[in-house]
Amino acid sequence: MAESILEIDNVSRVFVQNKSRVIALDRVSLNVKRGEFITLIGPSGCGKSTLLKIIAGLDTQHKGNVRLEGEEIARPGIDKGFIFQEPRLFPWLTVEKNIAGDLSLRRPEIRERVAELIELVRLKGFEKAYPKELSGGMAQRVAIARALLRSPKVLLLDEPFGALDAFTRSHMQEVLLEIWEKNRTTMIFVTHDIDEAIFLANRVVILKPRPGSIRGIVPIDLPYPRKKASGSFQELRVKILSEFEKVDEPEPESNFVI
Amino acid sequence: MESNAGTLSRPLSEAGRADAGANIRDVWKEKGGTLAAGLLLPAIVIAVWQTAGSLGWISPRFLPDPYTILLTFRDLAATGELGADLGISLQRAAIGFLLGGSLGLLLGLLNGFSKLLDELVDPTLQMIRLVPHLAVSPLIILWLGFGETSKVVMIALGAFFPLYLNTHLGIRLVDRKLLEVSQVLDFPRRKVLSRLVLPAALPNILLGLRLSLAVSWLGLVVAELIGSQSGIGFLIHMGKQDGVPAYIFVGVILFAVVGKLVDSFVRLLERQLLKWSDSYTG
Amino acid sequence: MQGPAQETGAPNRGPGFTAEALSRLAGRKTLLGALIPVLLLIVWQFASSKGWIDDILYPAPTTIASAFYDLVSSGTLWDNLRISLARAAAGFVLGGTAGLALGVLVGLSRRSEKVLNPSVQMIRMIPHLALVPLFVLWFGIGETSKVLIIAKGAFFPLYINAFIGIRNADNKLFEVAKVLEYSRWTTIRMLVLPSAMPNMILGTRVSLGLAWLGLVVAELMGATSGLGYLMSDARQFSQTPIVFVGIVLFAAIGKLADTGVQAVERRLLNWQDSFKGQ
User: Which of A254, B74, C72, C88 could form a disulfide with A43 if both were Cys (CB 3.0 to 4.6 A apart)?
Assistant: First the structure.
């Protein structure tokens, strides 16, 4: 599990709006190892979502390149599973049809795989339910299953639990770790919640805004499952927080969840 | 009709204002292109039509060519016939519209404000609405004959409902939260009406107005075609009787053009009056 | 059961039995709503039986009912109704499918929108009922011109609703289709069309209504059979009760068809979040 699956090489992204230029990302470089769980954390405007979209191939107007297993990423695809902040399920399809997507449930191998995934995301019994009958957390689980069906090389998650309440969020974090433990897909998870970042990741990548760049990378060596109340957890949290307080110029309010 | 679905064209404002000069040229090019594309089909149709007509491929009894129609327009205008017919038709439509429309507006307001009145009157009106208003024309002719009154009544009947329904809806939809604010601020009843309810209901009322006008015009068309001695409908009828199909075309074109003009006028009015609304959809 | 009895102003007078029984049958809303029509019917019937109003011009409800009965038993009603329904159906299917197909095409392709839409809008501006004389000139008094008028009426609502429904497809779902690499055809089949369904059903309802209206007028303006003919013939011979029967039938069938489509809608759109729908 030591080789790099994803190489982010000097990526810069500038947004031009009317007369102003915003440097969303400034020469960001990062190597992600196969099977790793990485969280990207930072205040709003630090470019974390932009970086994720670039990795996904949803944004191609950047300088520098991103390589997945050696090949440059030029467009979105099933090899880069993407989980949005909203579940974005197709309201007129049942859970199992949403997961199957453009693959036909008439094929037994697809049916099997869909059933496996429904079990994996703990939604057994809900195969024929419609999205309107699902809670936010359940719908996100369907979205995750949908992405995993295509056996992506990396799974990109853009603040997927941001819209959920604290209890559901905790539960979903556990479910996500379970899923990760079972199939070891490389995960890149964007969040602004420090606790979430520490709870989930092998390494926490801290980004700072204006211009967006990597401030530091904190490896998390704690064994899973982690206890948010434990001493070592809290120490890491202080450590990461202090990375943010280490600023030379005053920063405006961030939307940090502490 | 333009909307935000997943297609590739972006609004021009996103393209960056780096080069303002080139941008204006682009805008004109794009608009010109759109206009040209839209005119393509009609232009082809008219060209083919005229050619076929001039070459005698189609019988002038069935399909007079565009040029003949144009000449007929000119002749009718010259004799004053066109003006007279147009005037009468507009007059009828206007009276019918004012009659039915204002009644619809009034009832819509009353029923919108008074729950009791609404419960008494609305169901009856809904039942009447089930009848296609044009289906009532034989009855109206039976009762009122073929004269002006029956025509105006038919038009009024059609004009009534869109304004009634939309005014009613508009008032009922006035945001509860805004009403609560006015209560907290202790507005006198009349002020609540004029400052809050009516402006809030205005988009719906204007929609009702537009629909009412359209239906009035439609009602006029039918009323005149069923039986009249004057007006555009009569012109069309004459065309049929005397075997001058060009009259029919002139009449149909007139109907279409006036209908469109009135509609555009009200849309313009809407845009002006509703500049403050951010959820207004055309 | 205090409420209704009190509202009708009979709190302590006698048993108030009728009011209570009535209120158990139907809510206050239905009662109030039925008040005016019922009163009207009663007054009308009464006035007619007393000879206060001319029975020829304003036939009593009972006269109308018996006229209805006669028409049904003589088979005349069904003969004409059958023809009217067939015409309306033909026109609706013709115009409706054309409108749907064109609307979908124009919705999917911006290029075809630019070329076709302006022309459609221009044709829409011509009140389709004004085209009756033109069609009669070209196609005679027969079935063709009627069906075409109805078709033109049914065309537009389905066209515009298909168009809008397709354009309103959620951008966010398009992004999902991109990351999941759905082919263009799959995207249309799984995303665009189902998402346009609510609009298309609305379009169907409106189209049906306009087709029915178109039938009414097409028949009133020149027909030798059908419900409209029945009515205009009755008018000519001052057989007012038959005119009334025709009016009621037109309304009833129109309403029935609409209710039918609404039932289909409920089944097809059972996935809709009830909080959005109506």
Answer: A254
Q: What share of chain B has pLDDT > 90, as a percent?
A: 10
Report the side by side order of strands in the sheet with A203-208: A80-83, A154-158, A186-191, A37-41, A203-208, A213-219
Question: What are the chain A neighbours of C191 within 8 Å (beta carbons)?
Answer: 90
Counted across chains A and C, CB pairs separated by less than 8 A come out at 57
The DSSP secondary structure of A3-40, one letter per residue, reads: SEEEEEEEEEEEEEETTEEEEEEEEEEEEEETT-EEEE
Smallest Cα distance from C60 to chain A, Å = 52
Rounded to 5 degrees, what angle do the CA atoms B55, B57, B60 make?
95
CA distances C228 to A54, B28, B132, C70, Å, are 66, 52, 12, 18
How far is Cα A70 from Cα A80, in angstroms, rounded to an integer?
14
Q: Which band of pLDDT confidence, cut at 50, 70 and 90, is reported for residue C22?
A: low
**In CATH, what number is assigned to the domain containing residue A77?**
3.40.50.300
Helix (H) or strand (E) holding B83: helix B81-113
A5 or B239, which is more confident: A5
CA C29 to chain centre: 25
- Whether residue A115 is contained in a domain is answered as no
The Cα–Cα gap between B138 and B63 comes to 32
Q: How far is C263 from chain A (nearest CA, A)?
A: 18
3.50.50.60, 3.40.50.970, 1.10.3720.10, 3.30.450.40: CATH of C69-268: 1.10.3720.10
Helix (H) or strand (E) holding B39: helix B20-54
| In a domain? residue A237 | yes
Looking at the complex, report in whole angstroms how far the Cα of residue C267 sits from the nearest Cα belonging to chain B: 24
Complete domains list, chain B, with CATH? 68-273 (1.10.3720.10)
A16 at B interface, C-beta within 8 A:
yes
Single out the residue of B109, B235, B79, B85 nearest to residue B169, CA to CA: B109
Query: How far, in Å, CA of A91 to CA of C271, rounded?
Result: 6
Nearest CA among B196, B207, B171, B181 for reference residue B280:
B207
A18–B contact, CB cutoff 8 A:
yes
pLDDT at B117: 85
Give per-residue pLDDT as tens, A75-123: 999 999 999 999 999 999 999 999 999 999 999 999 999 999 999 999 9
The whole-number pLDDT of residue A91 equals 93
Window B:2-21, CB contacts with A under 8 Å? 16-17
What is the spatial distance between Cα C247 and Cα C231, in angstroms, rounded to a whole number? 8
Q: Which of C175, C179, C271 sits opposite A130 (nearest CB)?
A: C271
Q: How many domains is chain A built from?
A: 1
- Residue C270 CB coordination number (10 Å): 11
Which pTM value belongs to this model? Answer: 0.78
What distance in Å separates the CA atoms of residue B112 and residue B172, rounded to the nearest whole number? 6
Tokens, residue B269: 């009015």
Cβ-defined contact of B34 to C247 (cutoff 8 Å): no
Among chain A residues, the shortest Cα distance to C192 is held by: A90
- Its domain, for residue A165, covers 4-88+152-245
Q: Which residue of B has its CA nearest to C241?
A: B139
Say which range, C96-100, C166-170, C176-180, has the weakest mean pLDDT.
Answer: C166-170
C155 with C210: CB under 8 angstroms?
A: no
pLDDT confidence of residue C63: 87
Q: Give pLDDT, residue C20.
A: 65
